[in-house]
Write the structure tokens for this entry.
Amino acid sequence: LAKTTQPISMDSYEGQEVNITCSHNNIATNDYITWYQQFPSQGPRFIIQGYKTKVTNEVASLFIPADRKSSTLSLPRVSLSDTAVYYCLVGASSGGSYIPTFGRGTSLIVHP
Amino acid sequence: GAVVSQHPSWVICKSGTSVKIECRSLDFQATTMFWYRQFPKQSLMLMATSNEGSKATYEQGVEKDKFLINHASLTLSTLTVTSAHPEDSSFYICSAREGTSEPYEQYFGPGTRLTVT
């Protein structure tokens, strides 16, 4: 099963771009990379998902290098409301079933 | 996006009683549902995986007789915490997966805060 490693915490300021990197050295060929955001006492919220190269949506970009052993979530111009925990998940194929396992996540604090 | 609901959003119960938490996929059929537990300032810990119509698969260390999971339909899964004790107090989150091939679409419920007194 692919494990993920992320920084435990990060600090930023409003208006800055934030990049959170996740390492997943044992990613399997069929695995996708998915990022979630979680606020206190709420369920995780899907941010973005990708397989390779770059994916962009209305809230974030996801950069995946060719070897796919890491990925970087990029949040443009963060605001105070982006203060949350961000989780990187890698599809863990086990007998064809995906078992979504969370790592420790990155606690992002955005300062005024 | 698809919506997953949980009921209740919070519950307080006395030690020794049982509590049932419902998880529903509101606008899609969930082939697989997952139950997580989250303690304060910790990550989500997967408790079990359930497929509609079959027995749940529990993660190592999770007591299946204490945490009863029923996935009776493609839109409903329930978690019953039997003979709850204060150490079972936690935030319980369910997740529902749509589809059977990657990339999986997985949606999370808002969570249920359980407090056992």
